[in-house]
Write a sequence for this structure.
């Protein structure tokens, strides 16, 4: 094991030399405005800040709804004690009094905004908790709950919303989605805990090339992860998805659901357990699904209507998925069942795994081994930030997340040489 680590370090040093990496000089710190010391409210502080400033809110209760319209960092002292409460009242559409109009508790309308360390309490008001209508924003270490709507809303219906990082948040007890992305592309939704919402994480309306990774998504009323309405080429990777949809009567209640012409999404390395349905599909096509563990779901895999078959394995010897109800044998002890796991005539896992898949830290290309290809994948985009053209969130292995740096390479080289199983 020691030799593997040393050889990995030697490899990364050589690759670093080949790529001629440079390190950037950090800019000087911007000003910090403290609430309530400098201004009584967060909105007053925002209105008087200069671009790039940090607004630091001490512990206390602050009333929204406020708007961030320039690049700022909003930092709460502690998400347990720094609370933003929705101040919205129910508003009716003037053209139709029977229609409610939602409000944002926190509305981000600029690029490069960060918000962290807050509890956002919707107070039962109809609307959204944190809404992002910009790009390259960071939402981290917050708790969003009690929204009569969506906890976090990546709203790309009328704006370019991409390259945002939503990380380490708790999204719970919201009557809509824990997180909704609508027309939002190339965002990274990582390491969040999402539970007891109606839907967990929901990609909708041509939301493409997003990464949903390392999240704990459990006990949501209907769907854990939804990939809906022409949402294509998304990656659902390394998530724990359990207990979703168990008390729902909806036919699509499931851990992961793909619907309505959503195609070519990668669903890899997830554990789907004790959901009403592990995976379900309606009028979608060609998903790539392997190295997942389907464990004790009421129904493991359901296809209602399909436009094109899925790919359910990564070939031999990489293998397919683990199915807790698979009854085949492994006569040659290679870890892969000797007979296929059959869902229907068009959808078969040709190489079912005999034990649950355990992801390897540093296995960037998900081939079951940490090797030179993974190291090259990281070093080739060293210094790249979320939202940039070459950004690959699979290479972002270690905190602080959102940028590929030396810690990502060290994480990979530490596991160099490891293989599954």
């Amino acid at each position: 094991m020691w030799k593997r680590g040393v050889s990995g370090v030697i490899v990364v040093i050589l690759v670093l030399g080949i790529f001629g990496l440079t390190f950037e000089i950090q800019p000087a710190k911007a000003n910090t405005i403290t609430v309530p010391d400098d201004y009584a409210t967060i909105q007053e502080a925002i209105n008087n800040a200069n671009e790039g400033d940090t607004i630091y809110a001490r512990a206390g209760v602050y009333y929204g709804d406020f708007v961030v319209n320039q690049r700022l960092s909003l930092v709460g002292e502690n998400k347990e004690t720094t609370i933003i409460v929705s101040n919205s009242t129910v508003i009716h559409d003037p053209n139709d009094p029977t229609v409610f109009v939602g409000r944002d508790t926190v509305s981000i309308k600029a690029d490069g905004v960060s918000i962290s360390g807050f509890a956002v309490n919707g107070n039962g008001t109809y609307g959204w908790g944190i809404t992002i209508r910009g790009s390259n924003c960071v939402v981290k270490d917050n708790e969003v709950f009690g929204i009569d709507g969506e906890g976090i809303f990546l709203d790309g219906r009328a704006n370019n919303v991409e390259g945002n990082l939503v990380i380490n948040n708790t999204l719970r007890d919201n009557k809509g989605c824990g997180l909704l992305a609508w027309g939002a592309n190339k965002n990274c939704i990582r390491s969040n805990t999402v539970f007891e919402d109606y839907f967990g994480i929901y990609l909708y309306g041509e939301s493409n090339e997003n990464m949903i990774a390392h999240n704990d998504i459990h006990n949501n009323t209907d769907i854990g992860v939804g990939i809906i309405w022409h949402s294509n080429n998304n990656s659902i990777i390394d998530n724990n998805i359990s207990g979703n949809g168990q008390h729902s009567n909806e036919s699509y209640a499931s851990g992961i659901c793909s619907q309505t012409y959503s195609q070519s999404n990668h669903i890899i390395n997830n554990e789907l357990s004790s959901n009403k349905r592990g995976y379900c599909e309606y009028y979608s096509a060609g998903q790539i699904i392997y190295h997942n563990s389907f464990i004790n779901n009421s129904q493991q895999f359901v296809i209602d209507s399909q436009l094109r078959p899925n790919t359910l394995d990564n070939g031999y010897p990489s293998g397919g998925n683990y199915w807790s109800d698979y009854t085949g044998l492994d006569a040659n002890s290679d870890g892969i069942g000797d007979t296929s796991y059959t869902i229907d005539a068009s959808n078969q896992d040709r190489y079912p795994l005999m034990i649950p898949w355990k992801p390897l830290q540093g296995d960037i290309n998900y081939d079951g081994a940490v090797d030179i290809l993974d190291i090259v994948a990281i070093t080739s985009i060293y210094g790249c930030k979320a939202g940039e053209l070459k950004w690959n969130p699979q290479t972002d292995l270690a905190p602080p997340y959102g940028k590929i740096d030396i810690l990502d390479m060290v994480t990979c080289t530490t596991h160099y040489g490891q293989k599954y199983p």
